[in-house]
Amino acid sequence: ARIKEVEFVKSSGRAKDCPKDDRPEFAILGRSNVGKSSLLNSLVRKKEVALTSKKPGKTQLINHFLVNKSWYIVDLPGYGFARASQAARMDWSSFTKGYFSNRDTLVAVLLLIDASVPPQKIDFDCSNWLGRNNIPVTFVFTKCDKMKMGKGKRPDENIKEFQELIRKNYRQHPPWIMTSSVTGLGRDELLLHMSQLRNY
Ligand code: GTP
Ligand code: MG
């Protein structure tokens, strides 16, 4: 499961501009600011191979990275950015859905869920959309390093709540992993999981 090298391949504004789908591919999906780009950096142990920001809406294009010259990991723009214009939001859904309908080599979507906040409707909508389209998903809970702050709940309580809500929608619960890009929690587990999925 070791990552020896990672190479940025290209940014694409449209699904049809993506690199040829001739290798196993994982897509990182989730709300704006959930930590998609940070997770990618943490997986490949590079600080800024993917650009991150405190402000939501940083990643605007479909970014392909080639790992060990053999498989792709894709950093996608986030959804649910409240301040994005209606037009930008429409755009998000059309181009992301375009991406999903065009990638025959997609092994799984890593659907990132922020464990530091209570379950969000938009994450269920996304997970249901993936389910309806038979796209395999692994839930990756992010920011698990964040402990109780103010009135908020702890990550493990938020995760439990999310799991209970999701359970009704699946005959078999999809795989899930707790992570933190700050502490590296879950990194090895996720890499192992991805290598197992690639070999099926
Ligand atoms: P968009 O590209 O805007 O969709 O966002 P993104 O999902 O790529 O998020 P990004 O990786 O840019 O991270 C957003 C913010 O969350 C940054 O300030 C990160 O430092 C922070 N962050 C990401 N992962 C973690 C984590 O595991 N723990 C903590 N505490 N902060 C994190
Ligand atoms: Mg990003």
Which key features would you list for this structure?
200 residues; alpha/beta; Rossmann fold; seven-stranded mixed β-sheet; 7 strands; binds guanosine-5'-triphosphate; binds magnesium ion
Textual characterization of the structure:
This protein has 200 residues and is an alpha/beta fold. The protein has one domain: P-loop containing nucleotide triphosphate hydrolases (Rossmann fold), CATH 3.40.50.300. It is 32% helix and 21% strand. It contains 5 helices and 7 strands, in the order E-E-H-E-E-H-E-H-E-H-E-H. The protein has helices at 36-44, 86-102, 121-132, 155-167, 187-198, and strands at 6-12, 25-30, 62-67, 71-75, 106-114, 137-142, 176-178. A 7-stranded mixed beta sheet has the order 1-3-4-2-5-6-7, sandwiched between helices. Helix 4 links the parallel strand 6 and strand 7. It is globular and about 45 Å long. The model has no long low-confidence stretch (mean pLDDT 86).
Separation, N- and C-terminal Cα atoms: 14 Å
Largest sheet: 7 strands, mixed
What is the string of helix and strand elements? EEHEEHEHEHEH
DSSP summary: helix tally: 5
What's the arrangement of strands in the largest beta sheet?
Answer: 1-3-4-2-5-6-7
Low-confidence stretches: none
CATH superfamily: P-loop containing nucleotide triphosphate hydrolases
Gyration radius from CA atoms, angstroms:
16 Å
Percent of sequence in beta strands: 15-25%
Under the CATH scheme, the architecture is: 3-Layer(aba) Sandwich
| Overall number of structural domains | 1
Look up the CATH topology. Rossmann fold
From the spread of the alpha carbons, the general shape counts as: globular
Q: What's the CATH first level?
A: Alpha Beta
Number of strands: 7
Helix content: 25-40%
Structural class, by secondary structure, is alpha/beta
